[in-house]
Amino acid sequence: MANEQLRTAAESEPQVTEKLSPSIHPQVFQHTVNQADMAISITDVRGNILYVNPAFTRVTGYGSDEAIGKNQSILSNQSMPRAFYQSLWKRISHGEPWGGRLVNRRKDGSKYLAELSISPVVNGAGEVLNYLGMHRDITEVQRLEYQVRNQKALIESVVDAAPVVIALLDIDDRVVLDNHAYKMLQADLGMAEPAPMLMTAVRASLELDSGRGRRTSGYLFLDREVRLDPPGGKQPRWFSCSGSRVREDAGTAEAFLAGQGRDYLLLVAKEITSLRAQQEKARVAALRAVMADEDRVSSLRESLAAATFRLEGPLNMMASVVGMLARRKGETDPMSVALADAVTAGQKALDELRSMIPGETREPIGPVNLNELLRDVLDLSTGRLLAAGITVNWKPQAMLPTLKGAPNKLRSLFKALIDNAIEAMNTRGCRERELTVVSKARLGGIEVIIADTGPGIVGTQQLKVFEPFHTTKRGGGHLGTGLPSAQQVAAEHGGFIEIEPATARGCRVRVLLPLDRRP
Ligand code: FAD
After folding, report:
1. 85 CB less than 6 Å from ligand 1?
2. 86 CA closest ligand 1 atom index
3. Which of 18, 196, 342, 433 sits in a 20 to 30 Å window from 404, CA-based?
4. Which atom of ligand 1 is closest in space to residue 71's alpha carbon?
5. Cα(342)–Cα(406) distance, integer angstroms
6. Is the CB of 194 under 6 A from ligand 1?
């Protein structure tokens, strides 16, 4: 009966629109459908089953003799909303194919999730004669999909709850995924994206360390301690960063064969600011002791240098008097001889004094983070700044490139400039007391501005202050060697210090240190 109906449907088809290849016998189609791995059914326009293939029996449990003549609704689990079937029927009865997922019930009553597609079979006049239904059991696929989705949600909540900053970066350091701690950091710092800055710092530290081979298997880098200087002079923050490569397989058809994919970097940064703060405290205390020692030695050096400088004048004068006397009265004249002896003794004493001037210690050259160094100097000067009622406006560039230089020398350079600024403002009559320190990467180097609101340095003095033993300060205690020594240190680093032409108020000192010149 059903076969007859099928035959009728085929016969009512007036034309065969697609030609079959002569080598393919029509029976091949029947075998193909019979042996297909998908549950296939053909119905009449009411959904009554006319044909089912063996795969249909395997999936539903209904043999062809049980299914034929029944409506497809034998598979209905009666759980899908009515509107679902209404829209299905609306489409197919208008000659349009339909596809979707629904819950089916097997002959034994067990349920399964089916992915079903229904194609109307139309005649040349566009009338729907039959429906071709194809479906497969996707219960397992769905279970796996849910498993993946649940795992993803689980991983996301674990990553989000982790008390460390986590960000997934693409090859251009763009953040493609981040966690709650990352967003908090971003809000705290008021920065666009902290991740690229952390990566710049990590790369700088890797570059400096390239010889030491600290690469740890599985990680691109591990426990790299880097520092972020937030804008607005906020306290620096420290992070211990680790990074590993994550590969994502591309979902494209080409990628299936070629194994294409995208590489990401998983950045995990643990904040260690409080730990570092303790270490920093101890370090600054040690630094203070070293600097005090160096200060003592350098003031001894300067005092001796000044003493020899001052003694040289009168001695030279005496030497020329000896010469004059010898010419006038002869070299054997007792007065000339006595004076010559005195000059010789004086010069010997002067030489001895010179030999007592402590020599400069040779300092090894190493990587210097100027922000860190400037922060050290400010920390060392905290007591004096507070005592003088000076407010500090510290504006570091968030990430400065690393400089190669002599850290202690550079520290004394900036200390001399900051000491000068404090002294200039710590005078009666100077009401506004603000010290501004700015660091910026500029012109292949690093520029540091140290500006005060003191009386300033008049134009004629702006070059002279760099001459040794020149001082603009009245009264004793000033040798005038601070700026010349600072200038010498800058020059040893291939840079220079200049006093910017008269500003509205105070003094603005600019230090420029190139990145690529070793002292
Ligand atoms: P029914 O009362 O049979 O139908 C629900 C609603 O569907 C009706 O209110 C009506 O709006 C609409 N409807 C039903 N029959 C027609 C019709 N002949 N013309 C226009 N509208 C109609 N259902 C499954 O649950 N699982 C399957 O795997 C499945 N495979 C199918 C394969 C094919 C080729 C076709 C044509 C239909 C298939 N169906 C399948 C749909 C099935 O025929 C039923 O419509 C459905 O199972 C709902 O049955 P029911 O007894 O719950 O409700």
Report:
1. yes
2. 11
3. 196
4. 43
5. 43
6. no
Asked whether the beta carbons of 480 and 471 are under 8 A apart, the reply is yes
Burial class (CB in 10 A: 0-12, 13-18, 19+), 268: buried
For the chain, helix (H) and strand (E) counts, in that order, are 16, 17
Q: How much distance in Å is there from the Cα of 94 to the middle of ligand 1?
A: 15
Q: Mind listing the pLDDT tens digit of every residue in the chain (519 residues)?
A: 444 444 444 444 444 445 656 678 888 888 999 999 999 999 999 999 999 999 999 999 999 999 999 999 999 998 889 999 999 999 999 999 999 999 999 999 999 999 999 999 999 998 999 999 999 999 999 999 999 999 999 988 999 999 999 999 998 889 999 999 999 999 988 877 899 989 988 988 887 665 544 445 567 899 999 988 777 667 788 999 999 998 887 666 666 666 667 889 999 999 999 998 888 888 888 888 888 888 788 788 878 888 888 888 888 988 898 888 888 888 788 888 888 898 899 999 889 988 888 877 778 888 898 998 998 899 889 889 999 999 999 988 877 888 889 998 999 899 999 999 999 999 888 888 999 999 999 878 999 999 999 888 876 676 677 776 556 555 444 545 578 889 999 999 999 999 887 667 889 999 999 987 654
Which ligand 1 atom minimizes the distance to the CA of 85?
A: 7
481/385 same-domain check: yes
Containing H/E element for 104? Answer: strand 98-105
Hey, what are 393's tokens?
């406006």
Shared domain check, 124 and 198:
no
Same domain, 255 and 346: no
Last residue of a domain, one of 311, 330, 361: 361
Atom 48, ligand 1: residue with shortest CA distance: 73
**30 and 55 share a domain?**
yes
Residue 490 corresponds to which tokens in the numbers above? 């800058």
Nearest CA to ligand 1 atom 5: 85
Residue 448 lies in a domain: yes
Ligand 1: which of 73, 128, 136 to mutate, judged by most atoms within 8 Å of the beta carbon? Answer: 73
Domain boundary (110, 142, 174) is at 142
Do 245 and 190 fall into the same domain? yes
Residue closest by Cα to atom 47 of ligand 1: 73
Burial code of 317-344, b = ≥16 C-beta within 10 A, e = fewer? ebbeebeebbeeeeeeeeebeebbeebe
Whether 21 and 97 map to the same domain: the answer is yes
Residue nearest to atom 51 of ligand 1 (CA): 73
